[in-house]
Amino acid sequence: MQALRAFEAAARERSLSRAAGSLHLTHGAISHQIKALEADLGVRLVERAGRGIRLTDEGERFAARVRASLAELAAAVREVVDRANPRQLRVSVMPSFAARWLLPRIGGFLAAHPDIDFDVRANNALVDFEREDVDVAIRLGSGDYPGLSTEHLMGDIYFPVCSPKIAGGRLPAKPADLDRYLLLRSEREFWQPWFAAAGLDWPEPTRGPIFNDTSHMMQAAIEGQGVALARSSLIGNDLVNGTLVRLFDVTVTSPHNYFLVYPPRLANAPKLARFRDWLKSEIARDDGGSAWLKKNASRASRARRRR
């Protein structure tokens, strides 16, 4: 079975390295399993093609049958698991969103729905609902997820934040002052659009620390290690409790939105409906904080002008 999964992943990805990543195995393990499968079948399935691979004619035909069989097997496993524990709700979510939005407030959902067994899978990779044991995902993107049911949850805005203790409490008074501060970077948040909105003809920074998880970048900002470009969805209570302060009143709308994504077969599942309703009620409550963000930004701006 492992060899079949390795071959199907390689056929799907057209790359042994990407197949290895999708299955959390090494490149060598994938190669070994495919070679063992070819030896058992007595036929060549895969050939090298530049830096990737291509399937032989036999490999193409075999891959189609294996893919269909694995999908059917995965569906059977899901059916058994759902019947064994119909109360379990398996949610895939990005680590940053899990850490800074979902987990701080999930206690309310658990208290209101003690009959649901909540299972969080934190992962940046897109979910393959046909192969993975997941019910629903929360994703940041364009909402283009073919073959899946997609519901818009919320948008997002960007703005700079830093610790009030950065540089001994000497905060930048105007956007141009940021050239004297270390800018923290994230793989998904780019500074250049905010520079343009603030009237700065600056290129995207290429130096300084960069983080592949936004929650890590925000923690670095809290520790006073630099200025971060924060997303309103992930700011949590940091502005309210004063661990971070918002700089300036310039914001940029994110090109990406949050979506609830799930297979159509679960559209009428009661456990999904309750989770969806809770999510939307929490988001609606957060919308009330937008006015506070604006008020806080204006207040901070006035305080800097007085200095």
Task: Walk me through this protein's architecture.
The protein contains nine helices and 13 strands. The protein has 307 residues and is of the alpha/beta class. The model is unreliable at 289-307 (pLDDT under 50). It has three domains: 2-82, Orthogonal Bundle (Arc Repressor Mutant, subunit A), CATH 1.10.10.10; 86-154 and 258-290, D-Maltodextrin-Binding Protein, domain 2 (3-Layer(aba) Sandwich), CATH 3.40.190; 157-255 and 296-306, D-Maltodextrin-Binding Protein, domain 2 (3-Layer(aba) Sandwich), CATH 3.40.190. The strands form four sheets. The chain has a five-stranded mixed beta sheet with strand order 4-3-5-13-6. Strands 7, 10, 11 and 12 form a four-stranded antiparallel beta sheet that branches. A two-stranded antiparallel ribbon has the order 1-2. Strand 1 and strand 2 form a beta hairpin. The longest helix has 28 residues, at 57-84.
State mean pLDDT (0 to 100 scale).
87
What is the CATH topology of the largest domain? D-Maltodextrin-Binding Protein, domain 2
Distance, first to last CA: 68 Å
Number of DSSP strands?
Answer: 13
Encode the helix/strand succession as letters: HHHEEHEHEEEEEHEHEEEEHH
Compute the gyration radius: what is it?
24 Å
Q: In the CATH classification, which architecture of the largest domain applies?
A: 3-Layer(aba) Sandwich
Structural class: alpha/beta
Q: Note the main sheet.
A: 5 strands, mixed
How many domain regions?
3
Just give the CATH class of the largest domain. Answer: Alpha Beta
Order of strands, main sheet, comes to 4-3-5-13-6
Poorly predicted runs are 289-307
Q: Helix count?
A: 9
Q: What is the approximate shape?
A: globular
DSSP strand content = 15-25%
Estimate percent helicity: 40-55%
CATH superfamily of the largest domain: Periplasmic binding protein-like II
